[in-house]
Design goal:
Strand order of the largest sheet: 2-1-3-4-9-8-7-5-6
CATH superfamily of the largest domain: HUPs
Bound molecules: xanthosine-5'-monophosphate
Number of helices: 15
Largest sheet: 9 strands, mixed
Number of domains: 3
Shape: globular
Length: 606
């Protein structure tokens, strides 16, 4: 497997798998290993990429690779932290940068006199181009044998190479789409490694062999959530192990989208897959969630209830874990990094397939996750390769806890919270209200839990540059705010008050209807496939007209990998249609449009 592949050594940032997925898309095999892997295990690899990471190389306990990797004689490319670690490990110096660079920066190619070799990652590029940086340290002194190949205004050694040993270090992130020529740099590096070929077909074979090895003579009990990932994983397990060694269970949590369970049932029926049992456990979910307000608490309850139902149903079916059965999960890579699954990463949200009980089962070798090395786009390609219908596989991602993380909850005592925030600084003349509700965001590599503000405009369905600007500036300038919304149902300022509520069947039903309206409008406007994902969120706040009201947030997303995201801009007439239709739902008295990017907000609200 390792032979001829490009290995990413993971220093704990969020980027290792993004790099890996890019390399695979060029058609080369790529696998990720922890940075401290023994170099002896890497014999035969074609090249190595050292990923970024959030720490400082000179900090005690910061992640390190074994310098033996340089004796393998293969090309090595260090990116960000990887660049710094390489410089330090080979005798250069790393120090805190005088000016820390975050975001877009211009980089300039160095004039290289007496070029020893023509191997240059930037050949043919313009003199200056834009890259995406995120660093507080810099390479202050190059190691012996290296030359500088690019600089920025504030970072002299932004890129370096030792072309004889084929070692390269680059401070900026080439793997993100905001970096110009980033993919080209990765591709050139990959090509000079002369790697073997990779395709989704051969990957499926590799995973197939791995599944057989891991499962041995056991059988797999697979929880199918209804989302793309578990559907693909279930189909793959069926293909590899055969239907008689796999049993699927779809738990209807009461928190799924409208018509979803039926759609999945029909798709499997068409494929001839009939080993999926559907259990309506909605009553149990609503019961267990009846006192839950906090996002992490809700995730934990939903995860634990999943497991309890799975245990009960599997016992009813006579399947015993540890007695010849394992649990299958559709976990994909982004699920694992955001929980701090990688040794050095910070925890932002707990994914349901990484709650404590599952973690314990993983430690006992009772869980199989055949897609855990894949990015979303690769899962979809694999799904089509396995014969799943296009519409099913290319559905928008939907979180495991379903509508559970889109129904915000609040008790009556929390009503006063927004009043604590009195001095929000808005750099414009717009009227605004601080919403009495908080949501999760991400900043640096850490989690935030802050308020949203609603901005009012006399053209409430038009998203202007000025509003988008505001959505960046307000969270930057106000420690208590991580989201900026446009109120699309109201042009004049109103105060919002809390309508206390937890997750109930009625609220789930209401959100399902709103979600379905959005879906229909996206299909009508032919926008569905252009949008990465479109969470629709139910807030327990309203303007208190007549009955106590609630509101809906529209959160259309433009993204390529869910690691970073921008608000997708819908045409005003589409916003208007959706707003009008949603306002007709019982008890909904306001509609908002979430304009915030990720970071500082996350895609989901919780
Ligand atoms: P955030 O909200 O962290 O979401 O920006 C990133 C991507 O992950 C999805 N997501 C989840 N998926 N279980 C899942 O399976 C979860 O608990 C969960 N939380 C978020 C989210 O929909 C987006 O695609």
């Amino acid at each position: 497997m390792l032979k001829g592949s490009i290995i990413i050594l993971d220093f704990g940032g969020q980027y290792a798998h993004l790099i890996g997925s890019r390399i695979r898309r060029f058609g080369y095999p790529s696998y990720i290993y922890p940075c401290d892997i023994d170099p002896k295990k890497l014999k035969g690899v074609a090249g190595i990429i050292l990923s970024g990471g959030p720490q400082s190389v000179y900090e005690k306990g910061s992640p390190k690779a074994d310098t033996g990797i340089f004796d393998l004689g293969v090309p090595v490319l260090g990116l960000c932290y990887g660049h710094q670690w390489m410089a330090q490990a080979l005798g250069g110096k790393v120090a805190p940068a005088k000016v820390k660079e975050y975001g877009r920066t211009s980089v300039r190619k160095s004039q290289i006199a007496n070029r020893k070799s023509q191997i240059d990652l930037f050949q043919g590029f313009p003199e200056v181009w834009t890259v995406w940086m995120s660093h507080g340290d810099e390479v202050a002194e190059l190691p012996a044998g290296f030359m500088r190949i690019a600089s920025t205004k504030d970072c002299v050694n932004a890129a370096m190479m030792d072309s004889e040993r084929r070692l390269y270090g680059i401070q900026w992130h080439n793997e993100v789409t905001h970096t110009e020529h980033g993919m080209e740099v990765l591709k050139r590096f990959a090509e000079l490694c002369k790697p073997a070929q990779w395709s989704i077909k051969s990957y499926a074979e590799h995973v197939g062999a791995q599944i057989k090895k891991e499962v041995g003579d056991r059988k797999v009990f697979m929880l199918v959530s209804g989302g793309v990932d578990s559907t693909v994983a279930f189909t793959l397990l069926n293909n590899v192990l055969g239907a008689d060694r796999v049993q699927g269970l779809l738990v209807d949590t009461g928190l799924m989208r409208k018509g979803e369970v039926q759609m999945i049932e029909e798709a499997f029926a068409k494929l001839g897959i009939d080993n999926l049992h559907i259990e309506d456990a909605s009553e149990e979910f609503f019961r267990n969630l009846k006192d839950a307000y906090d996002p992490e608490e809700k995730r934990r309850i939903i995860g634990d209830t999943f497991l309890a139902v799975q245990k009960r149903v599997s016992e009813e079916m006579g399947l015993k874990m540890e007695e010849g059965w394992m649990l299958g999960q559709g976990t994909i890579y982004p699920d694992t990094i955001e929980t701090g699954g990688t040794k050095y990463a910070d925890k932002i949200k707990t994914h349901h397939n990484r709650v404590e009980a599952v973690q314990k089962m993983i430690e006992k070798g009772l869980v199989i996750e055949p897609l855990k090395e894949l990015y979303k786009d690769e899962v979809r390609i694999l799904g089509e390769e396995l014969g799943l219908p296009h519409e099913l596989v290319w559905r928008h991602p939907f979180p495991g806890p379903g509508l559970g993380v889109r129904i915000l909850c609040m008790g009556s005592t929390e009503e006063t919270r927004s009043k604590e925030i009195s001095n929000v600084h808005i750099p414009m003349t717009n009227a605004f209200s601080v919403l009495p509700i908080r949501s999760v965001g991400v900043q640096g590599d850490g989690r935030t839990y802050r308020h949203a503000i609603a901005v009012f405009s006399d053209k409430p369905t038009r998203i202007t540059e000025a509003l988008l600007e505001l959505a960046t500036q307000v969270p930057n300038g106000n420690k208590e705010i991580n989201r900026v919304l446009l109120c699309t149902s109201q042009s004049e300022r109103v105060e919002f008050s809390v309508t206390p509520g937890v997750i109930t069947r009625e609220r789930a039903e209401l959100l399902r209807e709103a979600d379905d309206i959005v879906l229909q409008e996206m299909r009508t406007a032919d926008l569905y496939e252009r949008i990465w994902q479109f969470p629709v969120v139910l807030l327990p706040v309203g303007i208190g007209r007549g009955e106590k009201g609630q509101s809906i947030v529209l959160r259309p997303i433009a993204s390529t990998d869910a690691m970073t995201a921008n608000a997708f801009l819908l045409p005003p007439e589409v916003i208007k249609n959706i707003t009008e239709r949603i306002l007709r739902l019982p008890g909904i008295d306001a509609v908002f449009y979430d304009l915030t990017n990720k970071p500082p907000a996350t895609i989901e609200w919780e």
